[in-house]
Amino acid sequence: MNEHFDMLVDALANPRLAERLAAERRPHGAPGAAVLLLLSEYDDPDLLFTERSAHLRRHAGQISFPGGGFESQDADYVATALRETWEEVGLPPDQVSVLGQLPATRLPVSSYDVAPVVGTWSGDDPLVLASPVEVAAIHRWRVSELVDPANRVTWKLPGGHRGPAWQFGDIFLWGFTAYLTDALLRLGGWWRPWDTERVVEVPNRFQRDRQPR
């Protein structure tokens, strides 16, 4: 296995990992949803993202990880993340090797708690827009692209809130998904320093649910 994956597995197994969460990120109860942070097993792995449909009521058009709400038939949050990934991009659960979980994390904007599951897959199985009502596009960015300082910026909202972000052409990755991406890169030993003073306002396209209707 990739040495970074070994480092990631060890980090995810650390029982004190949750202590690193900032106060506003700590869950208030049992998570209501789960997402899957899915790395391919290439020497230079890629991380799987989805682009949410512009017609959704919440987080429309934003870049996200596959995932969704916990359902009664789900054995646990891992089952939720794997089921949702299958429903969104057509990847069967048995094609995913689960490495562990990041601490349950709160989305401050929606006061919703989410369980982030981390896994790997071959990277070779075909992916499809299995649920076009929810998913508008599939994106896969290699870790080497994600750690390249040229692609990294700090997002900013008019109210002054800021955080880590990525800019790939006209695609803007920010918010909760960027927060988890940054954490994953750090835990896997991939993270590289970048210019946090490169500040970019979040494009309207990627914050539609924050815009007046």
Summarize the structure in words:
The protein has 213 residues and is of the alpha+beta class. The chain has one domain (3-210): Nucleoside Triphosphate Pyrophosphohydrolase (Alpha-Beta Complex), CATH 3.90.79. The chain has helices at residues 3-12, 77-89, 143-146, 175-187, and strands at residues 33-40, 46-52, 63-64, 67-69, 97-101, 105-107, 112-121, 135-142, 152-156, 162-168, 171-173, 199-201. The chain is globular and about 40 Å long. The model has no long low-confidence stretch (mean pLDDT 91).
Radius of gyration: 16 Å
The largest β sheet comes out as: 5 strands, mixed
Class by SSE composition:
alpha+beta
Poorly predicted runs are none
CATH architectural arrangement: Alpha-Beta Complex
CATH topology: the name is Nucleoside Triphosphate Pyrophosphohydrolase
> How many alpha or pi helices?
4
N-to-C series of helices and strands:
HEEEEHEEEEHEEEHE
Which secondary structure elements does this structure contain, and how are they paired or packed?
Blueprint: H1 3-12, E1 33-40, E2 46-52, E3 63-64, E4 67-69, H2 77-89, E5 97-101, E6 105-107, E7 112-121, E8 135-142, H3 143-146, E9 152-156, E10 162-168, E11 171-173, H4 175-187, E12 199-201
Parallel strand pairs: 1-7, 9-12
Antiparallel strand pairs: 1-4, 2-3, 2-8, 5-7, 6-7, 9-10, 10-11
